[in-house]
Amino acid sequence: MKPKILKDDYATQSQPDIEGPKLIEMTAVEQTPSFSDAENARSASRQNSVISAELSASGMRIRVLTSEQEIDSIRDVWKSLCTSPNSDPDYFLTVVRSSPEVRSAYVLIVERDGEIKALLVGRVEDRAFDVHLGYARLPQPKVKTLVFIYGGFLGTPSQEECAALADSISQALKSGVADVAFFNHLLTDSPLYPMLLRHVGILARDRFPNTAVHRRITIPAGTDALWKQFPYKARGNFRWNVKTFLKSHADSYSIEFLSKPSELDDMVRKVEAVATKTYQRGLGVGFGANPTELDRLRFKAEQGWLQVYVLSINGVPAAFLCGTLYQSVFHADHMGFDPEYRRSSPGIFLTLNVVEKFCELKGDKRVTAIDFGLGDARYKADLCNISWEDGSLYLFAPRLRGMVLSAYRIPVL
Description:
- This protein is an alpha+beta fold.
- Helices cover 36% and strands 28% of the residues.
- It has helices spanning 38-55, 68-72, 75-81, 89-98, 159-175, 192-198, 223-229, 232-249, 264-275, 279-282, 291-303, 346-360, 378-383, 400-407, and strands at 7-8, 60-65, 102-112, 115-128, 132-133, 136-137, 142-155, 180-187, 210-218, 253-258, 306-313, 316-326, 329-337, 369-371, 386-396.
- The strands form two sheets. Strands 1, 2, 3, 4, 7, 8, 9, 10, 11, 12, 13, 14 and 15 form a 13-stranded mixed β-sheet that branches. A two-stranded antiparallel ribbon has the order 5-6.
- A hairpin with a 2-residue loop joins strand 12 and strand 13.
- Helix 4 (89-98) runs antiparallel to helix 11 (291-303) and helix 8 crosses helix 12 (346-360).
- 42% of the residues are buried.
């Protein structure tokens, strides 16, 4: 599902003809869980039978895929609809195989007259359920969760088809496939989002969904066009950031580009040296050198998707930008900097350097945009010229456990 752009953040602003500084160019240096979970398979089979009977009169059918063999049967169609690396079928299966908390895949397919109209990509996981009491974070129970992944709503379904998807998920929760369903950053302007807020039963719906701005920058041809693309105030701030960084580190910094499988160990060592000092690590998020993350990085490197940039000062890593290049869009997965260098803004300097590099690429190496993904920040607002809104929400099983979990979502004032 491609986003309907809510805001072209600075296309309509008048831009003075001011050329920004070109940055110094960087130099390049590169247990399988079973898909045969019997309980999920039986639930999916029962659900397929009920839904197919209800929808057959309209020529519409919803199927649930839980096995790798079933997913392989629609791989080509899935690939043709996919625009995000997170929902690429091969990457999705890599995550399912390498994540110990995942019980099985759970992919919903909407078909009409034999043609696949949409996919909703998910998996059944034993997942910690976030519980807060005011600012206090309480112990997190492990909950059987049907997780629909970020970027996993594919195709262009009608409102009728989205209503059928919402009904299907409600049936799955009622039949015991999971205690709760979680939708991770679904486009709020997608036809499915309002169905999940209104179409399901009042006791099952999430009364407090979280919304967030999602930002992207389009990459023009050439750095002159890039700097003219920035709003006047942001351009001035970026020029100051560059000047401040170079004043302190002009002769002592270097930037490495790492992407090959053979460079993975070196990349992880250098990124981890910075990541361990970031505020994200203190919150338990961001880059982590655990076995699951390493499997995902290795897969991306083998596919030629992985791109990692490490800025070092006096030979010591000080900032990093890890991303995935997929269908000419660079998806920024992890970013961070050593707070020791906060005053000279190494993270912004590195990011601007990478954006300028992309402006100079041509032909089949062309990068058309950078997607900054989950979470918002001031520098993203200044850099990006496109934004839209994502929403994350839960649906709860109409059973005692689901109702207890729903009660935990009520904020305490």
